[in-house]
Amino acid sequence: MKQIFSALQYLHSNKISHRDIKPENFMLYQKEDLTCIKMIDFGLSKDFSQQGTMSTMSGSPYYIAPEVFLQKYNQQIDIWSMGVVLYIMLSGKVPFPGRDEREIIQNVIRGEFHFNHQAFQNVSEDCKDLINKCLIKDFRKRITAVEALKHPWIISKSDAGPESGTIGGGVSNQVLQGIDEILKCSKVKDAALNYLSQKVTPNNIEALQDALKNKDSEGSGFLPNEEFVRCLSMTHMKVTDREVQKLVEQLDGENSGKVNYQDFLKFSYLCQLYLNHYKLEVMLNELDTEKRGLITVAQLDEILQKSDHFNFPSSALDLVFTEMLGQNINNVDRNCIIKIEAFLESLKSQFEKQEGS
């Protein structure tokens, strides 16, 4: 862990964020030497020296920091990802699990996790403290790479051998099996989020969906790799050859020559919905200066009219207002007060109904 945090400290001091920290992106320098590892795959890394913050989505869903959904973040997303990596390496579990993509995104945004797994019984409190400090939801309060290198757990392990039953020797087969399952099931999600890092809009996704389905005459949900790439170019999305190549490699993990585009489209669409939902939640809470959890219809309508921020289906919004207030938003008293939490829950429910229909 000290080597990894040292690598991040070097990157961050040079105003570079890796943006795709995960177990697969660390490799042994030599097969025979288990003491030296190297950070790899800088395909999503970015220089943040000019603007200070970044806005494009990037990374893998299990490891993605909640502030990324706001599209305004800095190098501290790497620290969040390191907290997730450390949690996984110790337990074989993810801190923010989910039965499907929707739940994973929700749990990451919520930012709540626990150490109740059996594997954590033999893990020191210092180690748990480091994980807690890495996974602080407010990135301004999150531990930095420099601070992590000074953490008691890192210092205590710098000259000693690996902690018994944790990282290094003594890892149980159950933990190793859990890690293997996590790595296997993240391929399509990795591909979707990496592609969304190129600012894919809902209109782009719809155009891509039409192009892919037109090419898939048999309706199998699969397309040859070259056809998938051709469809990407037809939608005029701004992607480089390197980004397209990486996307195809991730979607075609078994080297079958075909891409399962349906899973990719589904997850991309869900990411857009929850990205907008999270942005809306933050903006509503900022307007609620008295922290009463209330907002007027006029304030809400003003936010929703900002087309550059949101692209919610109008049918979903109409159903939400009809369900909550008994009439369309255009006919509601502008001074009517609604509960922010109830509105967001109702909106999310409409997403789920429309996505399942």
Automatic annotation (TrEMBL):
It comes from the Eukaryota. Pfam families: EF-hand_7, Pkinase. Keywords: ATP-binding, Kinase, Nucleotide-binding, Serine/threonine-protein kinase, Transferase. Residues 1-154 form the Protein kinase domain. InterPro entries: CDPK_Ser/Thr_kinases, EF-hand-dom_pair, EF_hand_dom, Kinase-like_dom_sf, Prot_kinase_dom, Ser/Thr_kinase_AS. Its cofactor is Mg(2+). SUPFAM superfamilies: EF-hand (SSF47473), Protein kinase-like (PK-like) (SSF56112). One of its GO terms (molecular function) is protein serine/threonine kinase activity. Residues 203-238 form the EF-hand domain. This is Protein kinase domain containing protein. It comes from Strombidium rassoulzadegani.
